[in-house]
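Write out this protein's structure.
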Amino acid sequence: METIIKENCQEKAIITLKGDLDTAAVKDFMSTIQPVINDAGKPITVDFTELNYISSAGMRVLLVLNKNAAEKGGSVAIVGMSENILQIFQMVGFDKMFNIVR
């Protein structure tokens, strides 16, 4: 799994995910996005275009990001989500928690 922070400035943050966000990748993902979590009071875009799979552990990290953003006046939008991942998000109600842009 590869996590790329394309931008993290005062106005916005853009995070791109590539591969599988599974249990094994969560620790590295958390440490990579920690600067964004710390300064989450802005619009944050998470690009799923190249994400193949997300586990419950990966979804939990997105909840942490979303919670921090909401507490600090920011927001999280997810773009480029595949139909398979969207179905998972819909089954667990995450489609109502996140702004999903298709």
